[in-house]
């Protein structure tokens, strides 16, 4: 069996939701060093404490460090990777709040939709010093195939990121580049909604899915772990959405 033993993994967006689950799963897979990064220093500090506790509790032995990084700031991204040196894998789950709406919306206001998930992800792929056999894993979403009403630009972004991954896989080979495309997953992302609205939205979304429930971050994290571990997969998209694309 392959594992992440002796490997260094950077998770940008690792202080919350899916990224946190990827960082934690990497430690369970015996990664030697996991670096979590996101734009809020308090979240980085809190996450370091949580992950350090996990390694102690389960006697895992991996080292955890954290850095504050705004992936949308090109200078910060270049400095981050220059300082960190060679790594085995980078996972990007960072995402700002997606703007939706289309009819009657000034399209100029939607143009920055691509900043964090497309342009910043491309810059990370360009700047990271990844060892031979290593990988880059990006994050997309089910909207590329099943856009909800009011999301044409976000759907375009999700499709663009999928194409970016295939282009990067060719460009960066033999470094592998893949993408995980989640459907509805219960993370802190939903916390900005009022509780009643959030609960109804989650209940309604779950009811529509083939599996009749929302995903949890840990089961999505398994997909990122697979992409890191399997040295024969590149340029691929793994949709994890409880069957949402079939209903
Ligand atoms: N959860 C879902 O239902 C779902 C469904 C489909 C797709 N996705 C996609 O999956 C990804 C992860 O989602 P999630 O639910 O895990 O989100 P989340 O819990 O909101 O976590 C997002 C992470 O991104 C970081 N982040 C945001 N802006 C950043 C920036 N400029 N630079 C660096 N880090 C930044 C956040 O930390 P800071 O605030 O500290 O920066 C946080 O750690 C997102 O791209 C999301 O669109 C999620």
Automatic annotation (TrEMBL):
Gene3D superfamilies in the record: NAD(P)-binding Rossmann-like Domain (3.40.50.720)
Pfam families: SDR
Swiss-Prot/TrEMBL keywords: NADP, Oxidoreductase
Superkingdom of source: Eukaryota
SUPFAM superfamilies xref list: NAD(P)-binding Rossmann-fold domains
Keyword Disulfide bond applies: no
Any one GO molecular function term: oxidoreductase activity
Record-linked InterPro entries: NAD(P)-bd_dom_sf, SDR_DHRS6-like, SDR_fam, SDR_PhqE-like
Family designation: Belongs to the short-chain dehydrogenases/reductases (SDR) family.
Protein name stated in the entry: Short-chain dehydrogenase/reductase SDR
Protein source organism: Sistotremastrum niveocremeum HHB9708
Lineage: Eukaryota, Fungi, Dikarya, Basidiomycota, Agaricomycotina
């Amino acid at each position: 069996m392959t594992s992440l033993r002796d490997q260094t993994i950077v998770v940008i967006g690792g202080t919350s939701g899916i990224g946190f689950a990827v960082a934690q799963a990497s430690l369970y897979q015996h990664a030697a060093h996991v670096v979590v990064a996101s734009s809020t220093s308090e979240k980085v500090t809190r996450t370091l404490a949580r992950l350090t506790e996990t390694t102690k509790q389960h006697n895992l032995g991996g080292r955890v460090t954290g850095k504050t990084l705004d992936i949308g700031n090109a200078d910060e991204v270049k400095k981050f990777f220059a300082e960190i040196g060679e790594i085995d894998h980078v996972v990007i789950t960072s995402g700002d709040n997606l703007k939706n709406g289309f009819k009657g919306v000034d399209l100029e206001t939607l143009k920055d939709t691509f900043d964090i998930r497309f342009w910043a992800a491309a810059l990370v792929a360009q700047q990271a010093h990844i060892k031979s056999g290593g990988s880059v894993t990006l994050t997309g979403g089910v909207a590329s195939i099943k856009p909800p009403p009011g999301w044409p630009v976000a759907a375009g972004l999700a499709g663009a990121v999928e194409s970016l991954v295939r282009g990067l896989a060719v460009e960066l080979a033999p470094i592998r580049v893949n993408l995980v495309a989640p459907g509805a997953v219960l993370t802190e992302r939903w916390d900005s909604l009022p509780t009643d609205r959030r609960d109804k939205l989650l209940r309604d979304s779950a009811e529509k899915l083939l599996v009749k429930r929302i995903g949890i971050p840990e089961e999505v994290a398994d997909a990122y772990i697979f992409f890191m571990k399997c040295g024969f997969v590149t340029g691929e998209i793994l949709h994890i959405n409880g069957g949402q694309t079939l209903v």
